[in-house]
TrEMBL record:
One Pfam entry name: UDPG_MGDP_dh_N
UniProt domain UDP-glucose/GDP-mannose dehydrogenase C-terminal: residue ranges: 298-414
Taxonomic lineage from the root: Eukaryota, Metazoa, Chordata, Craniata, Vertebrata
Amino-acid positions noted as binding substrate in the UniProt annotation, renumbered to this chain: 127-131, 186-190, 226, 233-239, 304-305, 409
Entry-linked NCBIfam families: NDP-sugDHase
EC number of the protein: 1.1.1.22
Catalytic activity: UDP-alpha-D-glucose + 2 NAD(+) + H2O = UDP-alpha-D-glucuronate + 2 NADH + 3 H(+)
Name this protein carries in UniProt: UDP-glucose 6-dehydrogenase
Amino acid sequence: MFKIKRICCIGAGYVGGPTCSVIAHMCPEVHVTVVDVNESRINAWNSDTLPIYEVNTPTKTYGMGKGRAADLKYIEACARRIVEVSNGYKIVTEKSTVPVRAAESIRRIFDSNTKPNLNLQVLSNPEFLAEGTAVRDLKEPDRVLIGGDETAEGQRAIQALCDIYEHWVPKSRIITTNTWSSELSKLAANAFLAQRISSINSISALCEATGADVEEVALAIGMDQRIGSKFLKASVGFGGSCFQKDVLNLVYLCEALNLPEVASYWQQVIDMNEYQRRRFACRIIDCLFNTVTGKKIALLGFSFKKDTGDTRESSTIYISKYLMDEGAQLHIYDPKVLKEQILLDLSQPHISEDSRRVSDLVTVSVDPYEACRGSHAVVICTEWDMFRDLDYERIYDQMLKPAFLFDGRRVLDHLHPRLQNIGFQVETIGKKVTSSRIPYTPTAGDTRIHINPEPPVKKAKV
């Protein structure tokens, strides 16, 4: 029986670092080495200041599949380097999220560059980690998924990796499949989670139009054991490096396999997420008397969720874009995101055509009270716990009146009556707006948000 004695992890990112740390801790007899092309990242891991980086198989930004297909140039480069320096028997494991049949491409590179006494087996072992709880997710996983060839050599490699995980994971939680099933399972898992968020966000729009409360609806449907309560939290939309990237990769895969109806189905998950962001921005503009030009708006939270400094695909970026398009003066506070990162995100070409506009319209604050002082509205964009404990009476006293508070994450539900007694005009996701009508949300094709007095009149059927 082959036993793994040495592990080399290529990539010291959010997945590579914690994964190998847990393996080294749980398997003291295994020698674990982590390498990365970024020397400063390795130095940070070896210091008292650990880096916060996220592993990523990026989306292509050029050529065929631009904006949707996975960019595998780094995976290919790793594969070529592995076959160049390796000898003997090696198990090569995909850990990053990759498209279906990526292992087949890696195997072709290995087979085309084979040399005497070299035997490389390829496995798929996708990660199922959530940012902020990576170590806990590794030590107490819902499941471990390992995919490999349905050959004797492939099964031998699968068993060797199973032996590593069995040091701390019960056998009942280790699933073995073929390679393709493993690769697709990771994409499908993220697509299903994103789908649930878009589904409850679609219901939140309906709740605002009817007087229902999306929190009550989510509780009612979540108690159905067939549905469950997880990922039924309405918000300004999902973000992060995985959900949008993986759903778009799934869309591209379906189109490439001539499955247009399936591609269209999953594309709607992304479209609904974008609609939710635009809709929330429209609601802010509508409540502020249909104009935010020159008005100070405080945005609390910039990371895509609490307990991380990751801003990739954060909904706050897009809400900021829509408000900047209308000339709003944004004052942004986040307890973990650096000023340089915020300005960099808002200066991207697809967010702001002129980076000088960002310096004119955006101020990054180091204190939430400073961000809110003199503002027309406070907008909670990230569910940081500290936002529950702010002195909102102090904030109200320093704001222009009427003072608006937009709770985009439903973190202040328990405080809404008190906030209204203080004097705030409170608006939140998934509850009927205080005005007599629902603001019209323009389509994604509009370059700017124009709030019309009424939705467009439908033509009468003849």
